[in-house]
Amino acid sequence: MITLDNIGKSFGGKWAVRRLSITINDGEVFGLLGPNAAGKTTIIKMMTGLLRPTEGKILIRGYDIVKEPMKAKSIIGYVPDKAFFYEKLTGREFLLFIASIHGLGKMEALSRIEELINTFGIKDIENELIESYSQGMRQRLLFASSLIHNPEVLIIDEPFVGIDPSGMRRLKGVIKDLSSEGTIIFLATHSLHIAEELCNRVGVIDKGSLIALKNRDEIRGIEGGLEGLFDEVVYLTP
Amino acid sequence: MKSSILLLRPRLLSFKNSINKGVILRRLPFIIIGIIFWVLFYIGTYKVLSYVRGIDFFGELISKKLLSMTFFSLTGFLILSNIITAISSFYLSRDIPFLLSIPLEIGDIFNVKSVETIMNSSWMVISFIPPVFIAYGVSYEAPLSYYIFAAATFIPFIFITAGIGILIAHLLTRMFPAKRLRDVLLAIGLLLFLGLYFFLRSITPLDTGTPEGFINSIMTFRIDSPILPGYWITEVIFPVLKNKALDYLHIALLLSNSAFFLMISALIGVRLYRGNLERIQPAGKGFNKGLLQDFYPNYKSAILWKDTKIFFRDTGQWSQLFIIGALMMVYVYNFKTIPVKAISGLSPYIKELMVLINMVMTGLVLSAVSARFLYSSVSLEGEAFWIIRTSPVVLKRFLWSKFLYGSIPVSIVIVVLVLITNIVMNVTGLLMFISVGTALMLCISISGLGTGLGAMYPKFKYDNIASVSMSPGGMAFMLIAFTVVLLTVLLEAWPVYLYHRATLIGRNMNMLEKVQSVLCAGLIVIINILAFYLPMRIGIKRLEKD
User: Range of B86's domain?
Assistant: First the structure.
């Protein structure tokens, strides 16, 4: 379970996120939606330990991300929206590096890398420097690296940037499989159709506050589905 | 031209927007350190000049020779700096794809990159040359026109070196067909090595056996060639300094050559630029994985393994090594040519003095090398630092990895340097032991200082890692590091002097001398521990922040 308990983040006195509380259950795919600059990336950065909440607390399967960051980070897989890599490593070397900083043994790391390279279709380029990868291949590598240590929680910021239809199909399959195995998936996206297809529940935020929280059945009951909900709470609310 | 000016606008606006009260306050310590260094540099130059001008018969000649040697060295330094900066600026900058995608003439991009290269490669020299000009002006009681002339003639001097440097950078990138820029930089290193070798051969003093021979040899240093810009600027400035008539020939030479070299670099550079850009694109296929490809690092050594691997593949990281390597060669060569025998009659402590000077000079090299290897090591993570921050990596361990990454090669280089120079000077026994021990201790403390300060002031967004060590923070680190070296050597000099004095008069050190020696040793240890520990500790805290 992930618990965001009344969290807030202010930058120089200006609140980017305020009084936000959400609980996400094991095996749930939770979608976070919102217009640009609503605070989605700030929330994700707090959940991954990149930023510290100004108020409230975040528990990742019982571990407080501020007080027990190592334990929390060791069970999180993170896919950022803008990923920077070590450009002078090959894809395979990058995966080896990520495996080793997560403390995986050599045999376990090698078999896991082999599995992920095949799953994400990067076998052909595994020994090329990352600097020569296309945007889509980088995204695939990013997903592979985020899953190398079998995380219990996968946090994804804009999951399908630059990915081709075949890659997208693979990724959706991976997300569904992980969810069925009990992994918590937290994804922030602008793609409403992807959120509608993958998420069990969605939260809509605007100006740093949660303005709607609906499950799949509730969304189906709204005229226009998720798009209708989004229009209603974001654009039509004064 | 209009487009070129327009392209410079974002840079000027970014600079303007980055200047605010907070930034100035944050950089205040660096500004103060810079001013202190500036003043000390002025005082040092003035004192040396006063001493030199006081020498009978040769005073004025040596004074002019010193100015000429300064400009000669600056010519070499600026050309090399322009070559390296031009390669980064024209071929490795992140804004190149954007600039090529907008409807601009290649000439406009070229102009903007040329301005960027000149600014980035010359700012340090422009910042630190005024104390030299002022010291000369004050010493000669020069009129106001001297200062105006000195500043005005320095601009074409900068342009000449920039024109030559930019031109060489484009030609080298064209000459080497390999797609990797590494080969180009290797060629620069080779050219530099050969150039220095032949230069040193040409100026080797003929006679170092006697003081007279040594002075004669200095006077015959062949740097006053009338085809060098360093000579022209000396010939322009010196008459004004002494309130004599202007040397119009050399003014004309400076102006015409600055225009010529800028034009020729633009004419040839523009023709080569587009083609060169296509040649250096990443090759992708067939990458050679190199040695130890099956090595799997454990949790503790993963970051060190990653950094070492990237270091050998990233040309931007080791291009500065050529300059450092060349400086070290010159350094060792200088010690080899010092006529220890000829000057040993001046003082019974001459060997000790030489060892201490060696320590101070090695400290200077240590500060410069550490700025590149240790101060920049945290920033080296660049925008990929999110990987470390979101992984279960203890930041203390991360910083220690960075410390080891830089301190091991730096310590090896510096200790070997001290050993070689000591051997060249026939230093043995206790002096050898003390100097090598001190060098090792300084390597550790300065490495900690560099790693810690680098973590306190990281710069994760950069075009070229070399810019991190040349930033105000990097310069401040070098100055602080050199201060630690200076304090350590000065505190060490006193007990060495006391011990040697006692030995010379055939007695053991008395109680007071022993107490002073122990106090000095204690202070040395405290200074070095603080230099290591405080920045490392504060650096870890800083990295743990948002």
Answer: 1-10+28-282
